[in-house]
Specification:
7-stranded mixed sheet; 6-stranded mixed sheet; about 20% strand
Length: about 500
């Protein structure tokens, strides 16, 4: 049975979802969606233009009047139905994600889809716990109340590496808090965002609460960020583009949430479980073909374990199976495009002048020629690079791990912090005091201990430094999508308050 998702049939009316229906874009420009495993075009659609963004924002603005006023229980009930609808669509969501992104089907089925369903279930419950923190007499003659209110229309921009999960992370806390939203997925990966919106509609989410505009960043994205009726922008992507988003958002003084690039350090102390660290490094570096902003990219290994770690990682990488994403035995799929593969290869090729490529460092060919049409790249380990080198400092977004030695604990932690990024990290040791120090001193939004990558709906995700600010997932994300209002009631019922004397004295 052919497992592949038929986007042409499913989205025959177009790749824009506005006010509850699919429609074509109005830009006059066509986007081809390419299967990265074969290089074949699997869907073509007309990109969103300014008119589509305006229509989506207008639909969201009109829907906000009712959705923003719904009770927490009403929003919760809808989100529970939404989670159930996503579960019903799990097969289509997994196949669409693998076709669109080249993900191994086991990653889509076991990670992306269940995680997104769990996000919906979590926010269905969390929607009922939006409350202020204080009500009381903090002034002798007044009662103060804290209200937590939705912001309004949210404009969100998601990347291409985890289209379904990014839709969930951005949409669910926003609508649970009572906002309405216009989501712009990456124009090359629209499939699961559209399925996500259709599932929401089937669950009873009112038309206009969730809208999808599939368009290019310089057109639809910039229009959305700069739109005067959009009260908040949430962006996930590169730090360079994040700076541009921030620049545009300042024009209308929007609330801003940025989850940007990463260069996660993987710090292995000399008392670590070597086997666990080796397996953790390979899994952490290669998940989603390394196209993960929290992927393990810089392994710092204390010198007594360094040689054995390098050998162990190289040997394990050699066993990773590249192949058709729809083959359940495939471990590693292609990169998102040939352009991305060439970008990754460029970093590795330039590194040969100052470092050693221990394993990988090439696209499969020869006996594996059946993969040559796709954007495949072998798992790659680089050793001997300097801390200030390009391959250590820059985000590659590919299946490449760089390993460097360190001597003292002070040096290992200092090296971990010595890039502009601060999204995620991990520390590996049997000593609770060592890992405790690492979790305190490594400047990152998440530090795992003796593991790397796991995320859960109840805990926040977000970075520091050039990795941005604000949180996805968890109840902490409500801080991004709500505004706190102080309401103060006079308790005296007298016309002339004592403090009025500061304005007009004792005059009647």
């Amino acid at each position: 049975m052919d497992q592949r998702f038929d986007a042409t049939e499913r989205f025959a009316e177009g790749a824009q979802f506005i006010a509850g229906r699919l429609r074509s874009g109005s830009s006059g420009r066509t986007q081809d969606v390419v299967d990265p495993a074969t290089g074949e075009t699997v869907y073509s659609y007309e990109l969103a233009g300014a008119a589509d963004v305006d229509a989506a924002v207008d639909a969201a603005r009109q829907a906000f009047a009712d959705w923003g006023g719904a009770t927490p229980g009403e929003r919760s009930d809808t989100l529970h139905r939404f989670a159930a609808a996503l579960a019903e669509d799990a097969g289509d969501l997994a196949r669409a994600e693998s076709l669109n992104c080249g993900k191994p089907i086991k990653l889509s089925e076991e990670f992306d889809v269940p995680g997104s369903i769990d996000n919906a279930a979590f926010f269905a419950g969390a929607a009922r716990h939006l409350e202020g923190k204080a009500a009381g007499e903090y002034s002798p003659d007044h009662t103060s109340v804290i209200r937590r209110e939705p912001i309004g229309v949210v404009g969100s921009i998601a990347p291409w590496n985890y289209p379904l999960q990014m839709a969930a992370w951005k949409v669910l806390p926003a609508i649970a808090a009572g906002n309405t939203i216009v989501l712009k997925p990456a124009e090359i990966t629209p499939f699961t965002s559209l399925l996500f919106a259709q599932a929401a509609q089937r669950a009873g989410l009112p038309d206009g609460v969730l809208n999808i505009v599939s368009g290019a960043g310089r057109d639809a994205g910039e229009r959305l960020v700069g739109h005067p009726s959009v009260a908040m922008t949430s962006f996930t992507g590169s730090t360079a583009v994040g700076k541009r988003v921030a620049e545009i958002a300042t024009g209308t003084v929007k609330r801003l949430h940025l989850e940007l690039g990463g260069k996660a350090p993987f710090v292995v102390f000399d008392d670590a479980d070597l086997e666990a660290a080796v397996h953790g490094a390979v899994a952490g570096a290669l998940i989603n073909t390394g196209q993960d902003c929290t992927a393990a990219t810089r392994a710092y290994v204390q010198r007594p374990l360094y040689d054995a770690f390098v050998k162990g990682v190289a040997d394990l990488m050699a066993t990773v199976r590249l192949g058709d994403p729809f083959d359940p035995s495939t471990d590693l799929g292609p990169l998102i495009s040939h352009a991305q593969r060439d970008r990754v290869a460029g970093f590795v090729d330039r590194a040969r002048a100052y470092a050693t490529v221990v394993t990988g460092g090439e696209a499969p060919a020869g006996a594996n020629g059946e993969l040559a049409r796709g954007a495949y790249y072998r798992p790659t380990l680089v050793a001997g690079a300097a801390q200030d080198s390009e391959i250590v400092q820059s985000e590659l977004f590919g299946p490449v791990l760089v390993v460097l030695p360190f001597d003292s604990d002070d040096e290992g932690i200092a090296l971990a912090n010595a890039t502009p990024y601060g999204l995620a990290a991990s520390a590996w040791s049997r000593d609770v005091y060592r890992t405790g120090r690492a979790t305190r001193e490594i400047n990152a939004g998440c530090v795992w201990v003796n593991d790397h990558i796991p995320i859960i709906s109840e805990m926040p995700h977000g970075g520091a430094k050039a990795s941005g600010f604000g949180k996805d997932m968890s109840a902490y994300s409500f801080e991004e999508y709500t505004q706190v209002k102080h309401v103060m009631y006079d308790n005296t019922a007298v016309a002339r308050k004592d403090w009025h004397r500061t304005v007009f004295g004792d005059r009647p």
